[in-house]
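S.,

Sequence below, as promised.
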Amino acid sequence: MGILTNMRVLIVWLATLLMSLSAQAERSRILENVDIVDSSSGPQLVITFNHTVRYISHSPRSANDIFEIQMASKALFGNVDEGLIGSETLQWSPNPAVPLLDITYESEVTGSSRLTLRFQRPVSLTIMSGKDVRTLTIQLPPPPVTTPRPTALLEDVQIPSSASTPIREAMEAARQAVAAKDFSSAIRLYEKVLRKGSLAVKPIALEFLGVAREKNGQRAQAKAVYQRYLAEYPEGGSAERVQQRLTGLVTAAKRPPKQLREAKAKPGGRSDWQIFGGVSQFYRRDNRTTDLGEDNEFTSITSSSLTNNLDLSGRLRTDTYSVRTRFSGGYEYDFLGADGPGNETRLSSLYAKISDRKRRLHLQAGRQSGNKGGVLGRFDGALFSVQLPKQAKLHLVAGYPVNSSRNGLETSKRFYGANIDLKPFGKNWGLNAFAIQQTVDGLIDRRAIGGEVRYFVPGRSFFTLGDYDLLYDELNTLLFLGHWTFPDNTTVNLSLDYRKSPILSTSNALQSQMAESLEVLLNTFDASEIQQLAQDRTATSRLATLGVSRPLMENLQINGDLTISNFSSTPASGGVEATPATGNDYSLNVQLVRSNWLKTGDIHILGTRFSDTSSSSTSTVSLNSRYPVNPKLRINPRFRIDLRDNVSDGSSQTTYKPSLRMTYKLKRRFRVEANMGGEWSNKNLTDDTNKTQSWFVNVGYRMDF
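The prediction came back faster than expected:
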């Protein structure tokens, strides 16, 4: 009854908080979560995205504490580049088996992205595309089986001379209690020293408190004490010894995955919440100057704001059920006042996932992101899943789409749907079929059926997604992704993409209209006319991409891709002008990636990009380097040149973009970051030249816990 009561309280709290907070939803969150999976080869990190990803390459190939992964990214619905441009960081709580600190996603070019993994210490890893195209699997080595150094005796440790006589006596009494195996008395004495002792003696008492608890069979409490020591005294003289003891505890507690699966849970087993996450604060300022000639110059501050972010996750696991919670959001304070966009509260994620492993039931409720079963991104609602016989899994989903940056819970638009996962052709195949309906202001907004077909074996996979709208009798999306890895580690990626852009829905009729809602638009047009307006405002996008990556030597590899795309025209209707078709647009992207060149752990990427579109042709050269100056300081200089010829006015434009990012680790879980740069652009017209220059600075800190 206690568990059920707590769940009800949690769900009510979520619903109340969702209705009281505002949200920013220009795009759904890209990084959804990270899971740890035990395997015979060691722990695996399974990173889940809210779009499709395909692994291309990574560097360096040798053991390191930071890795950069090159990926091909693609949104599942709507605009091809929807939500994929930008950056975000997912915090993690490191431990000896999985020493991960955080994961950062970055993308500046449509279809191409990189993932940076930062670890507490150098590790070796193997990276694979996941069985689901929304996941990436990182194989870590098994944790080392280390034997802690022999426990130091108290007489071997020099008590600081500043310690008072009562404290010295307490430490001696504790030592004698340990020798007599009276660990309970020793624990009480060490805790007394921690409360009353001087700062100089507390690290010694804290270490031996952990030893006493470990010898007393209190492994969880000993682990917590060792973690506290490393957090408070990371540079302490005994830090290495304490880390070995902690590693020994974790290693001894791990059993082979098969034994974990076969072991029967003991009734009434202990369970503890694990809370982790991170906070950050960053100040950003942007200045822009435009020179139109003849002393006609304008300077403006385009941004001056303080961004505060909190990412908080909680996990509870017992013998029969587990609970996972997540909050991700922040607040941006705008210093420009009336001249700026204003203050904004952001709520990316706020949900709880409750799983009953015995009955194989799962419920996830709150603000979350979805990209499966026809769900189009972030929503406020619930997802219920149940395992069926023959490896089938049923999912029921309902909620309210989140599409406003300032409003909270919006109930005018709602959806509900169902989808089922099947494995009809063996373990290498996966099938998902869905049906979904969405309404808005009393009208059907979207009524679709579709499905996914997945095939995965090591080194070869493909994924196909189809979405068909029954209301409009049109194909919304047809997507094919293929991936091949050859014996020489050459990888080939193929993407074929047909979609409506934006995804076809009745709400598209509001584009370029004065009406704020379909309810208002019904005063001017009837339902059938509104549906026609929606079709008229929806273009068709076609895209094909072929990518190849090949290692040239141990620390040098080449990546490249060729993309062809086009957009259809849209007709004039409802007072909105027609838009012409683009014709075929072409882009070619080539990168040379070199690691461990100037120093172990460095990464250097030289890139070139050529694009030829209906509006312009652009040539780009870029250099992106990550260099570890020392264990605490890393620098990331970047430089980019764009040469662009514009079709509309016959002008040519040259743009230079230098920038520098620096990260300094003050403590194990606290680091300061600074990112600064500028942009200089010269636009040559027939009889004039326009010059613009801008610079930005973004400085702040991140703290993990």
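Residues 390 and 444 are 35 Å apart (CA to CA).

Coffee later?
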